[in-house]
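fyi for ur records
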Amino acid sequence: MRFFFHHFYHTFAWTYDFVAAVVSIGRWNHWTQTVIPLIDGTHVLEIGYGPGHLQRILRSRGLFAVGLDESRQMAYLAKHNTDGSARLTRGLAQSLPFPSQTFDNVISTFPAEYIFDQHTVSDVYRVLHNGGRFIVLPFAWIIGNSFTDRLSAWLFRVTGESPTNATDILSQRAVRPLEAAGFKIETQQIEIKSSIVLIIIARK
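which gave:
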């Protein structure tokens, strides 16, 4: 699956929007936008901006938004989707190229496993203002009973994008490294369009 997602995010990045829309039955952008009401402050760093849709929305709301992504192909897509106006940079989440205490919020939606790497978590802590928020949407799952809902839910389970045991995943993969870095953790589950979105809010 790592091999598949690597090429999906790089070589076949141009298919990202189509695939995301199909497997989520049109919910993907609705899911990612659930992080917006949780933003507190004006300076936002998005890690893994992908095609750039959230960057466009953040800027339209008057926020000082910056995007970081490792994929050159996604950078091309995001530049096109934001009419070249977004503040985008290429880099690794484990070594953020920003001064300490630069941002009020760091957000990431449907990131790969690097997001909870100890180096990522410690660097996010570094670039946040005191009281800042690290907002992560690790996964969503579909709870509808229609045929298409059940098919989509199966696809998400097969690809590992939907948890079979969210509590264990949060404890092992997310909460422990975040708490070790000094964050205070809370989680929210938001129901939207016959699905549930899980969001982690880590406060510095």
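Strands lie at 43-47, 64-69, 87-90, 103-109, 128-142, 184-191, 195-203. thats all i got for now
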